[in-house]
Design goal:
By secondary structure, the protein is α+β, with helices and mostly antiparallel strands. Helix 1 (about 1-20) packs across helix 2 (about 40-50). Strand 1 (about 25-35), helix 2 and strand 2 form a beta-alpha-beta unit. The radius of gyration is 21 Å and the shape is elongated. The strands form two sheets. A three-stranded mixed beta sheet has the order 2-1-6. The chain has a three-stranded antiparallel beta sheet with strand order 4-3-5, with no helix packed on it. The chain has helices at about 1-20, 40-50; strands at about 25-35, 55-65, 65-70, 75, 100-105, 110-120. The chain has a single domain, classed as hypothetical protein PF0899 fold (2-Layer Sandwich).
Length: about 130
């Protein structure tokens, strides 16, 4: 359930950006690697965001899992069990059959941009009586 932790980190960062600019968040664009379970992350962003982010749109651009082997093979790894830690990917290289694979993409979690709307500041002045 590391998606909860990731969602919390994203929300805290976005909240800090909004606070620094005195604004509310309209939209957040993210790049999320498949290992970070983009669908679950989306769910947790919406659940944990609560009222503060209820009108915020979270757009997720998925980054596929790609692997590289010592033999030089580089390719997609859509069949990888995403719950297996990196050094133990658990699948053989399709080219050489070896197990010396490393991830080259698929672990990303990046806030690409945040669209804000300035909060209206209403000034309340009272008339002075003479």
């Amino acid at each position: 359930m590391h998606e909860i932790e990731l969602a919390t980190r994203v929300l805290n960062t976005v909240r800090q950006i909004a606070t620094e600019h005195g604004a509310r968040v309209l939209e957040v664009n993210l790049r999320v690697g498949e290992i970070n379970e983009p669908n679950s992350l989306q769910l947790w962003l919406n659940k944990l965001g609560g009222d503060e982010f209820n009108s915020t749109k979270f757009n997720i651009s998925r980054v596929p899992i790609t692997i590289k082997c010592r033999c030089g093979y580089v390719g997609n790894a859509s069949s990888i069990d995403t719950h297996i830690p990196e050094p133990e990917l658990g699948i053989p290289c399709p080219k050489c059959g070896g197990h010396e694979l490393s991830l080259t993409s698929g672990q990303e979690l990046e806030i690409v941009d945040v669209k804000l709307e300035k909060k209206e500041v209403r000034e309340c002045r009272t008339k002075k009586s003479r």
